[in-house]
Amino acid sequence: MNIPEYLPRRLTISLWDFSWYTMTQPGEPYSDLAARFKELVERGYNTIRICAMPLFLFDEHGQQRPGTLRFGSLGEIGRRTRWYNCQGGAVLDGHAHLLELFRQAKAHGCYVILSSWEYQQSATFLETSELARQLQQIKPQNRFMALAKAMSRLIDFLKENGYREQIAYAELHNEVEFGALAQVGVEQGILSDDGPALIASMRPYVEEGIEYLRNAHRDILITACYTLASNYSKDDVAPNVQVAHFHLYLNGVLQELMDATGIRSEGGTFPNAAASALLRDDAPDFADYCLPEGEEWRLQGNPVGLRLFYLHDWSDPDKWDLFLYDRYHAHKVAMLEKTDQRYEEIGSWAERKDIPVVIGEGYVGYTPLYTNFEEGPVGKFIAEYAIRKALQLGFWGMVLCSNCAPHHPFWQDAQWQKRMNELILNGEPT
Known about the structure:
It is a single chain. The chain is α/β, with parallel strands linked by helices. The chain has a single domain, classed as Glycosidases (TIM Barrel, Alpha-Beta Barrel). It has helices spanning 19-22, 33-42, 54-57, 94-107, 130-137, 143-160, 183-186, 195-216, 253-261, 273-276, 306-314, 317-327, 332-353, 377-392, 414-426; strands spanning 11-17, 47-51, 69-70, 91-92, 111-115, 167-171, 222-223, 225-227, 244-249, 357-363, 397-399. The longest helix has 22 residues, at 195-216. It starts with 10 loop residues before the first strand and ends with a helix. The relative contact order is 0.14.
């Protein structure tokens, strides 16, 4: 595997996503980056993965954007939904904030995976719509190169400030088949939920963006990020990726809950009986649960819809978890088999290409902020199974769980994280 000498032989990753700049108000998790990095290394991590906000800091031509970034929130929407529970009101010099993150990474001996969520969630949190609308106005077929040019200039910016060796690698974008990048396939008549066809349709555009970045930065590993949600030919992944970066969300029993409640669909009555059975007594009517008038732009291109927000915000965490525990037995074997099948497939594919494999997110799925299924014994069992399988197959890097980060309650379980990071970095204790 072609891994630069200055990088660790194995990456153990905490997912700081876009929250490292949306949750920076006093009392929020990322108001003190030095403290968070101290906790990171205490738990045994050596890498974080972030939305580096390339298109917030630089435009589609690679020109630096002037001024400050101002962030808002969804108001009463998302108060108990992971990633969306920010206060809003942050005003940041985005370029300086990025350099401070890298200064702390270097001081703590850590590395950073650069990505972008700007055609998914991150534009949702801007105070006003101007920049979000600018990004949406870029033609779908041009968005990939816009990202490449902005990311290239961002990498130049980091190099100019002495941080090249803190860059683990750069992704063109997070989960290319979900969000507004997939519009290039939808415009070809592909259904928005047809992951395999969307991935195939995007291949030339992703490939072109990666080629631009590789030519501009021959000393940095360049890739794109895909999920393992559907079963698709890996020949449709951009062939010039230098890291096989994938996300494994098993869903399984969680998929049964989502199907039963209809939170990922658009038709039928909502909340239906299954969704209503999970609600808190003080839940408002769904008809009254909406963004303020004029704020609808916040969810454009965002893969999370109002039904999911409503159930995540207003379900009783115990009722949610009890549903999953009650039905888990019917899905356990299939979830473990899916882990084996997906990992073995990408492991073989990456081995043929002689590139390292990284699992950047996982493992059960997207659950409400205050539920504990993923943090509990079953979720930990699944995560540990996936981590051990990845180690067996020689993968370069992996998350412990997408929820093991400062903006999730799981962060407080430091002992489990220390134990798993010890396993990832050093193998079984003797």
